[in-house]
């Protein structure tokens, strides 16, 4: 990845010129005068720079980090212990696609266990923004590369739901930060049902080990399992097992089930990670539920 020119995050404050964000800099903290974990920002993509700022004009979108964000809690000593090559990486930009079907289900994928970052964790399809791409270009490309689904840009009514500040490992108790991203969650609409889209699914086994079409009932349960908290999970009489499609090493799909408990698991505070829905994905799914309640007016 480093051999290819990466698109990085730049920040702009008080009308100053955009500055490349530093790896150990919390983007959310940069815009949060009171140290909060969520606020609204403006964005632009200019000359292969993803620029975040707070302006008087334009549509603001939510930017959030988890309360346990490692960069937020990084001490000076810990920051100095991060290898120099990592410190010099800057902050990468990713695009993740919330694909909504005609019958209001969304596609989640389980990352292959061999992946270096967030292995065996459930996320929407997505990946890095590449030079000279638009956000929609990147999202559609990653969707096709990971799942085999090819959608046309003029048919998907794209909408940015929010931005997530993602750090890996996700907690300092699991080691010093190795990667730092701003993930752009983009909602796309398909005119097909999940069963129609399922017929075209052809996931890449190097990246995806399972797929799931989640309806709003399951999504409400997923987002109620807030990472870092111990509040009761809303199960809403959901079945104890959830239908998924497993992906073989050769790429073949097979029907299977997983316990509901997998999807309402929380990120462990310490020790090895577990199969779960990522914290950023829960943020995006919560925004998706809100979009169902307040649909955009017809143009």
Topology:
Elements: E1 8-12, E2 19-20, H1 27-31, E3 38-46, E4 49-53, E5 61-64, H2 70-73, H3 76-81, H4 84-87, E6 92-100, E7 106-111, E8 122-123, E9 126-128, H5 135-147, E10 159-168, E11 179-189, H6 194-198, E12 208-214, H7 216-224, E13 241-247, E14 253-259, H8 260-263, H9 279-293
Parallel strand pairs: 1-4, 5-10, 6-11
Antiparallel strand pairs: 1-2, 3-4, 3-5, 6-9, 7-8, 7-12, 10-11, 12-13, 13-14
Q: Going across the biggest sheet, name each strand in turn.
A: 2-1-4-3-5-10-11-6-9
The number of helices is: 9
Largest sheet: 9 strands, mixed
Calculate the terminal CA-CA distance, rounded to whole Å.
Answer: 40 Å
Order of helices and strands: EEHEEEHHHEEEEHEEHEHEEHH
Instruction: Please report which band the strand proportion falls in: under 5%, 5-15%, 15-25%, 25-35%, 35-45% or over 45%.
Output: 25-35%
The average pLDDT score comes to: 94
Structural class: alpha+beta
* Share of helix, binned: 10-25%
DSSP E strands, number: 14
Low-confidence stretches: none
- Taking Cα atoms only, what radius of gyration do you get, to the nearest Å? 19 Å
Overall geometry: globular
Short précis:
The chain has 299 residues and is of the alpha+beta class. It contains 9 helices and 14 strands.
What descriptors fit this protein?
29% strand, globular, 299 residues, 22% helix, single chain
Task: Give an overview of the whole structure.
This protein has 299 residues and is of the alpha+beta class. The termini are far apart. A nine-stranded mixed sheet has the order 2-1-4-3-5-10-11-6-9, sandwiched between helices. It has a five-stranded antiparallel sheet with strand order 8-7-12-13-14. The protein is globular and about 50 Å long. The relative contact order is 0.15. The model has no long low-confidence stretch (mean pLDDT 94). It is 22% helix and 29% strand.
């Amino acid at each position: 990845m480093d051999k290819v020119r990466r698109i990085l995050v730049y920040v702009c404050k008080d009308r100053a010129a955009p500055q490349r964000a530093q790896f150990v800099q919390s983007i959310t903290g940069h815009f949060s005068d009171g140290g909060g974990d969520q606020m609204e920002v403006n964005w632009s993509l200019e000359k292969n720079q993803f620029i975040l700022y707070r302006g008087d004009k334009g549509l603001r979108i939510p930017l959030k980090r988890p309360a346990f964000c490692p960069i937020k809690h990084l001490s000076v000593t810990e920051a100095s212990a991060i290898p120099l090559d990592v410190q010099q990486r800057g902050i990468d930009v990713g695009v993740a696609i919330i694909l909504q079907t005609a019958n209001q289900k969304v596609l989640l994928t389980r990352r292959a266990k061999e992946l270096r970052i967030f292995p065996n964790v459930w996320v929407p399809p997505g990946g890095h923004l590449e030079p000279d791409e638009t956000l929609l270009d990147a999202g559609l490309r990653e969707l096709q590369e990971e799942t085999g689904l090819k959608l046309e840009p003029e048919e998907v009514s794209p909408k940015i739901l929010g931005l997530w500040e993602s750090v890996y490992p996700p907690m300092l108790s699991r080691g010093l930060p190795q990667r730092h991203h701003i993930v752009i969650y983009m909602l796309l609409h398909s005119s097909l049902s999940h069963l129609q889209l399922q017929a075209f699914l052809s996931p890449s086994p190097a990246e995806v080990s399972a797929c799931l079409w989640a309806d709003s009932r399951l999504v409400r349960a997923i987002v109620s399992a807030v990472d870092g908290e111990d509040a009761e999970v809303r199960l809403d009489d959901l079945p104890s097992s959830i239908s998924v499609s497993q992906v073989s090493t050769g790429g073949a799909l097979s029907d299977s089930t997983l316990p509901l408990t997998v999807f309402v698991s929380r990120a462990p505070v310490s020790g090895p990670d577990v199969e779960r829905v990522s914290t950023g994905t829960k943020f995006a799914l919560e925004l998706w539920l809100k979009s169902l309640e307040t649909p955009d007016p017809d143009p």
